[in-house]
Amino acid sequence: MKVAVIGATGMVGEVMLKVLAERNFPITELLLVASERSVGKTLNYKNKPYTIIGLEEAVAQQPQIAIFSAGGDTSLEWAPKFAAVGTTVIDNSSAWRMDPDKKLVVPEINASELSKADKIIANPNCSTIQLVMALAPLHKKYKMKRVIVSTYQSVSGTGVKAVKQLENELAGIQGEMAYPYPIGRNALPHCDVFMENGYTKEEMKLTREPQKILDDRSFSISATAVRIPTSGGHSESVNVEFLNDFELNEVRRILNDTPGITVQDNPDTNTYPMPIYAHDKDEVFVGRIRRDETQRNTLNMWIVADNLRKGAATNAVQIAEYLVAHNLV
After folding, report:
1. pLDDT by residue (tens digit) across 78-96?
2. Which CATH superfamily is 127-307 part of?
3. Nearest to 235, CA basis, from 170, 311, 180
4. Which of 89, 168, 181, 260 is the most buried (most CB within 10 A)?
5. CATH topology agreement for domains 2-124+312-325 and 127-307
6. Which residues does residue 89 pair with via DSSP β-bridges, in sequence order?
């Protein structure tokens, strides 16, 4: 199994290599790919040094799987070139997510839709993944009508520059700014760029991607995305109106029985999900599960996950694992 990791030197790329090693993905040949300024440098994988190569050379080597974490422009240009030589691409950017001809996959939910013909597979937005992981089993049982989600997103979702900005601010150092304002001791209601409708691109991803993943446009989602001064892990406050009523104990049981979800929900012991608990873990954590007492058939919950793992790297590796297990590459 020849595997290429595109964007190997980036924040998600580094986590990707860590997850591949942890899960012992069956790699016989590994290609580490990055931008021209990194070509020739070395990176370690399983205590062995690998020389970084460029995209042209990686395409020429025709890997069976290429996992992209190098930004939308790179994916738009290079994913089709890999696909043309028979490589199956798993792309972490937003480039292909809403393309009607490309699958948008969270393995626990819709991996069964994949086939050998799918040469470019989209990995959903980090905030979307943890949201649909909790919504999917509840939608199956109670049928969602409307979802209102507010996110509390880590600076790591923006990248290394943003993490450095927060570290500098906490240390009292003047440095390069990733955001238009300070992020330390602050909250920015501004994730990604603003669209013509007044929402940000991140908010529109949360609105549209779950409908595609669940293959259902009968429910609607309204989102507000906020950047907060945490260095890892995204949190979401979620209000879900269902067509059918529910019992809270059954909701907890359904979530508990869902692979990939851990319920942390005991107010008596101050047990609830937090980014510091989710750090470096692959589960999606759900808590603060309670009925909305202002409206019928409506549930409130709090969802937290490591945005670099299940929100990006782990989900992509799980897709690759499914492809290998089902002989789709």
Report:
1. 999 999 999 999 999 999 9
2. Dihydrodipicolinate Reductase; domain 2 (3.30.360.10)
3. 311
4. 89
5. no
6. 66, 120
Tell me the per-residue pLDDT of 272-325, one tens digit each, with 9 for 90 and over. Answer: 999 999 999 999 999 999 999 999 999 999 999 999 999 999 999 999 999 999
Residues tagged active-site: 126, 234
Nearest to 181 by CA among 109, 229, 244, 111: 229
CA separation for the pair 34, 166 (Å, rounded)? 26
Instruction: Read off the pLDDT of each residue in 4-18 and give the average, rounded to a whole number.
Output: 96
* Residues 134, 303 contacting (CB under 8 angstroms): yes
For 32-81, what is each residue's pLDDT tens digit?
A: 999 999 999 999 999 999 999 999 999 999 999 999 999 999 999 999 99
Contacts of 86 (CB under 8 A, 6+ apart): 62, 64, 119
Burial class for 6, CB neighbours closer than 10 Å (0-12, 13-18, 19+): buried
Instruction: Mark out the alpha helices in the chain (DSSP H runs).
Output: 11-22, 55-60, 72-84, 107-110, 126-142, 160-171, 201-213, 248-256, 275-278, 314-325
pLDDT in tens, 200-240: 999 999 999 999 999 999 999 999 999 999 999 999 999 99
Unique residue bearing structure tokens 């067509």 = 243
- pTM (predicted TM-score): 0.97
Measured from the Cβ of residue 45, the count of other Cβ atoms closer than 10 Å reads: 16
Report DSSP letters for 170-232, one per residue. Answer: HHT-----SSSS--TT--BS--SPBPTTS-BHHHHHHHHHHHHHTT--SSEEEEEEEE-S-SS
Architecture (CATH level 2) of domain 2-124+312-325: 3-Layer(aba) Sandwich (3.40)
